[in-house]
Amino acid sequence: MSSNCVFCKILNQEIPATIIAQNDTVFVIKDIHPQAPLHYLIIPKKHVADLTHIQPKDRDCVADILFMAQQLSQTLPNARQFKLIANNGPAVGQSVLHLHFHFLSGIKSNSFSV
Ligand code: 5GP
Ligand code: ZN
What residues are paired with 83 via a beta bridge? Predict the structure, then answer.
């Protein structure tokens, strides 16, 4: 938990958001400003700033993120094909400094970016 982090606050129920899926290590919310017909954020429950900060002990959590993406693609309508994007650092567009993967899907997903 990082006290000034929007995703930690959502996990801690200090900011409202609907968690659409979760397991022991990751949770999923709808992006508040969707850039695609389906735009979800897959977020580790542990506060890690970005992929440059993960450690070997985070291996299972990182794998869980990918399996959660697979689960979303299998359960959400029109999500069999999808993009998974992580911005790592403000210079490339990261605005929330808590690791997260954008899950983007729906029609014409080749044109989606975040
Ligand atoms: P980034 O720009 O760091 O790659 O992605 C952060 C994402 O978090 C953005 O797409 C933004 O719309 C989303 N976001 C920021 N604040 C909130 C919030 O309070 N609730 C939800 N559901 N999404 C948020
Ligand atoms: Zn956080």
Answer: 104
Contact 42, 86 (CB under 8 A): no
Number of domains into which the chain is organized? 1
Flag whether 2 is in a domain: no
Question: What are the beta bridge partners of residue 22?
Answer: 27
Q: What stretches of 4-100 adopt beta strand conformation (E)? A: 19-22, 26-30, 38-44, 82-85
Task: Report d(CA 27, CA 18) in Å as an integer.
Answer: 10
Token pair 């954008």 in the structure block, residue: 102
Which residues' Cβ are closer than 6 Å to ligand 1?
6, 15, 17, 29-33, 41, 87, 93-96, 114
pLDDT, tens digit, 9 for 90 and up, residues 87-105: 999 999 999 999 999 999 9
| Nearest ligand, CA 49 | 2
